[in-house]
Amino acid sequence: MQFGKTDNPSSIDFSLPKDHPDTKEVLAKKKANAKFQVYVGCAKWNKTDLKNFYPKGTKDELHYYATQFNSIELNATFYKSPSKDQVQKWKEKVSKDFKFFPKIPNTISHFKRLTDVDTITNEFCDAVVLFEENLGMSFLQMHDNFKPKDIGVLEKFLKAFPKEVPLAVELRNEEWYSDKKVQDALYTLLIKSKKTFVLVDTAARRDIMHMRLTSDKAFIRYVGANHESDYARLDDWIKRIKVWRKEGLNELYFFVHQNIELESPLLSAYFIEKMNKAFDLSLIVPQTLKK
């Protein structure tokens, strides 16, 4: 992921901002379930991107990936909406506990900008619902030039989006976060629509760390800077997630990227080990070939 990339990560203040004051209020309306549902994964499963991960001779990369992780942020669907047959093939390669988090195709989000997309949106949803128990949550990522003036378009899209498919929303333009009235209108819309607000932790765009949850689910896209600070940043996330869990967080979706994809499995393994210890979980710790 190149979004928010910097050539000088040592100059960035990576400390997590304080929570938005309404995050605690949202979580307080929920009651923490006995079982904390946690899904951690990478953005892709192909061998080119996940260096030092697949054993020599691995023939089916998705099948192997799914023995090491319990989820995948399915970026492949951003570039091409999957057919029903493709979804069925992917589903057959994983266990019943594995979750796919498919990204809304860029035809919908970037090229048509959510306008006149009912047919292709329904086609996408008709396909991904075939993941059945393996469907986690789809997510919509808008282009950086999609601004608050377009909130009516977003509202219409969210209202029409099939309720059978859970949806999270990621907005990148800084204007969504620089004005309190704009923020409040957006948060109200997401809560009313029962949509999850995506958090992106990336080096050069600290302004979008809104720390605002709109449900009892946290969807976090973590982007390592290929820097020694990557691990300390993960430690900080563990501390924040502990707070959210006490306040009522029930589900966590945490996906690890890097500006240059070299060691996402290593970062993921580190984070999973910390999560297992902090929350008494038994998540699979992915095995990596590079120590």
Secondary-structure element pattern, one letter each: HEHEHHEHHEHEHEEHEH
How would you classify the helix and strand content by structural class?
A: alpha/beta
Number of helices: 10
Provide the CATH top-level class: Alpha Beta
Q: Could you tell me the mean pLDDT? A: 93
- C-alpha-based Rg, rounded: 18 Å
Characterization of this structure:
This protein is an alpha/beta fold. The protein has one domain: TIM Barrel, CATH 3.20.20. Helices cover 36% and strands 15% of the residues. The chain has 10 helices and 8 strands. The chain has an 8-stranded parallel β-sheet. α9 links the parallel β7 and β8. α9 runs parallel beside α10. The radius of gyration is 18 Å and the shape is globular. 38% of the residues are buried.
Task: Give a short synopsis of this structure.
This protein is an alpha/beta fold and 291 residues long.
Please write out the topology.
Elements: H1 21-28, E1 37-42, H2 61-68, E2 71-74, H3 76-79, H4 84-92, E3 99-102, H5 106-111, H6 118-128, E4 138-141, H7 151-160, E5 167-170, H8 180-193, E6 196-201, E7 217-224, H9 229-247, E8 251-258, H10 264-279
Parallel strand pairs: 1-2, 1-8, 2-3, 4-5, 5-6, 6-7, 7-8
Helix pairs in contact: 9-10
Considering the chains and any ligands shown, give keywords for the structure.
291 residues, TIM Barrel, globular, 8 strands
